[in-house]
Amino acid sequence: MKKTVILFLVLAVAASCAREPKFRITGTIDGTENATIILQKRIAGGYEVIDSAMIENGTFTMEGVIGYPQMVNLAIKDKRGGLNFFLEDADITINGHADSLYLASVTGSQTQGEFDTYKAAFDESNTEMSKIYDSYREARMSGNEELAASIEKELEALDAKQNEMKKEFIRKNPSSYVTPIVLNELSYTLEAGEMESLLGGLDTTLNKVQAVVGMKERLEHLKAVSTGQKAPDFTLNDVDGNPVSLYSKLGGDTKLLLVDFWAAWCGPCRQENPNVVKVWKEYNKMGFDVFGVSLDRSKEDWVKAIEDDQLTWTHVSDLKYWDCAPAKQYAVNSIPANFLLDSNGVIVGHNLRGDALAAKVKELLEAK
What is the distance between the alpha carbons of residues 174 and 352, in angstroms, rounded to a whole number? Predict the structure, then answer.
């Protein structure tokens, strides 16, 4: 009898070890019946469906294998919005309402718990930022530009504080599957050196995460256009359809050239344009010029924005939106973005805005 018990235990352990890890989602969704719910993950250009199920009597179940914790989206077919959460091979319970699925509770995912804790750390500063932004919007609407500029500096300081909090999280959690999400969000504000340092500090277990793979690829592009590197040449058509190369704008009377990535549809770009115009007017005769690269899709909108904002320098575009070839070449993932070049095409500044652009241009021109 004793041998039989031992054999049974051995077989049970063996069977347990042989069982492949998998996820099992048990969900309760109020407010809908006989609807299809879809589990999907974001890929380049859209979403890839992982699984789907019918919601019957307000409940559904899903099973499968995800491999490692990944951010996914749960959505009801033909209904906007959805719930973003970390899926991993575990028993996960989701409870929510069809009209506010994004607020549903998720239990059973350790990584989701880590993500919830991470987000909670920003609650206080997010509330503060929201109040400050309301004041900023009121100042802008009332035409008080001086007050708006002052409040904008408060927003920038708070944003910088949050970025430091994110970097601290990354450094302290090198093996968390939440970390690639945080770093990917932050990466658009990082120079090549800092991004390489943060990526290099990640545990090798994260190398399989698609966001990490993508960031490493982007890092190589960033290195090629980092400060001190010679800017890659490119050619696009101007508003009259004539091809103009970047290098054709270098040299001669031009001592500094700002390569400015922008678009008519980009609100922050349009807000920054008056500052670029101001710097151009003040320093153009001393050798400062601008080369505008638009990520527009409509030529009509592009040309109108140039005229409305009085952007009197050379402009080029392939009218391909985010498929703009030079934007990809320069690792531009958000706009406005700019690169300041010297007369030899060497990058001497990056993403200079507001007073920082004027200060840098003045410093470099006075040094010549």
Answer: 31
CATH fold, domain 13-108, is Immunoglobulin-like (2.60.40)
Reported CATH class of domain 235-367: alpha beta
pLDDT tens digit sequence for 296-330: 999 999 999 999 999 999 999 999 999 999 999 99
Q: How many CB atoms lie within 10 A of CB 254?
A: 16
Question: What stretch(es) of the chain map to CATH 3.40.30.10?
Answer: 235-367
Reported pTM: 0.75
- SS3 of 261-320: EECCCCHHHHHHHHHHHHHHHHHHHHCEEEEEEECCCCHHHHHHHHHHCCCCCEEEECCC
Name the residue among 165, 191, 169, 186 with its Cα closest to residue 178.
Answer: 169
Dihedral angle computed from the Cα positions of residues 322, 324, 330 and 332, in that order, rounded to the nearest 10 degrees = -20
Could you tell me the end-to-end alpha-carbon distance of the chain, in angstroms, rounded to an integer? Answer: 94
Alpha-carbon span 175 to 240, nearest angstrom:
52
Token code pair at residue 91: 């028993």
Every domain of the chain with CATH number 2.60.40.10 lies at 13-108
For the four alpha carbons of 257, 263, 264 and 265, in that order, the dihedral sign comes to: negative
**Alpha-helical runs (H) found in the chain:** 2-18, 110-120, 123-141, 145-172, 179-186, 192-200, 210-224, 267-283, 299-308, 325-329, 355-367
Q: How far apart are CA 239 and CA 318, in angstroms?
A: 10
The overall average pLDDT reported for the chain is: 91
Closest CA to 334 of 267, 237, 251, 284: 267
Q: What single DSSP character describes residue 34?
A: S
DSSP β-bridge partners for residue 86: 71
As given in the structure block, the two tokens for residue 4 are 């039989």
What whole-number distance in Å separates Cα of residue 302 and Cα of residue 295? 9
Beta carbons of 110 and 129 less than 8 angstroms apart = no
Q: How many CB atoms lie within 10 A of CB 304?
A: 12
pLDDT digits (tens, 9 = 90+) for 207-262: 999 999 989 988 998 899 999 999 999 999 999 999 999 999 998 899 999 999 99
pLDDT over 90 for what percent of the chain? 79
Determine the 3-state secondary structure of 341 from DSSP.
strand
